[in-house]
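>> Question from a student workshop board

For tomorrow's exercise we were told to take the sequence and the ligand below, predict the bound structure, and bring the output to class. My setup keeps failing. Could a helper post the expected result so I can at least see what it should look like? The ligand is NDP.
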Amino acid sequence: MFNALVVNKNDEGKTSAAVTQIGLDDLPTGDVTVAVEYSTVNYKDGLCIGPGGGLVRNYPHVPGIDFAGTVEASDDPRYKAGDKVVLTGWRVGEAHWGGYSQKARVKADWLVPLPSGLDTRQAMAVGTAGFTAMLAVMALEDHGIKAGPVLVTGAAGGVGSVATAILAHLGHEVAAVTGRPETADYLKSLGATQIVAREELNETIKRPMEAETWGGCVDAVGGEMLARVLGQMQYGASVAAVGLAGGAGLPATVIPFLLRGVNLLGIDSVMQPYENRLRAWERIAKDLPMDKLEAMVHPAILSDLPDLGRDILKGQVKGRVVVDVNA
Ligand code: NDP
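>> Workshop helper replied:
Here is what the output should look like for this input. Compare the format with yours to find the bug.
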């Protein structure tokens, strides 16, 4: 038997989460059984642990949309016992039991071998949020990052923190948007050269285009902020849209696309093919300074998760929460 955070739903539709002992026979089917070492807390995990159940497709459920650990048993020739692996995406932690468990069983196709240069804890300090930040940076690079500051919204959060550190390491000037002025020193320590107050960008757009300012943008916020930012992009610059922490609506006009050739690039980390995942993890190992990654990390254990799930939905988590499932 081993520990897992199990979420149940009662007949009235109310959910509850508790650390529970389960066995290997309880795990869903899959080719590879992994002894999980670390998982993390992402915005989606907050939705899945929370009272509405968010994105959960089956109960009882073990959330945790990512994990890193060691293969314990494998029916797939690509993996053998003892291999270190990482998992993000593929609806794990939503439709299939996830990483908030000392053991997980998944499809071999969903895994990636741990890239050299990262241990399992570092891989989860990155986690889904950091992996997505890397995908966003790669998408901006594919379309060309212009000279001048690159904007990162929701900067003190998980995606924003990692995007800030990667972009700064690559030599870009980074303008970090935050609604928490007390995180300014933290964001500067990650490499941000300019701090932009959330209020400055949260107003509804008055003019569809403003001064050409940003050479690129990683946007974790969406909503009115994204609409405003589109009108401030330099000619031909790109916005990698990652999230909707500030709202799913987009009260924008088509003018920035028509008159400034702005590109809006959608980033999805969930259904990335194996080759793309491998490429992104290899770039992470190369382009994310480990001392900056360490500055983002807050350690947690399984029993902390119900509280942390609430905190992340309120935008109160700074950086990355790494869950040691064996502590
Ligand atoms: P976090 O909660 O860690 O970060 C979100 C940040 O957004 C907060 O820290 C806060 O930053 C800012 N924020 C929160 N609420 C508001 C608001 N109302 N208005 C403006 N800013 C706000 O979440 P993650 O970084 O893990 O995820 C960010 C988004 O990206 C989420 O929507 C998530 O679902 C999405 N996501 C998408 C993925 C994909 O594949 N496309 C993968 C991973 C995440 P600050 O305090 O600095 O202002």
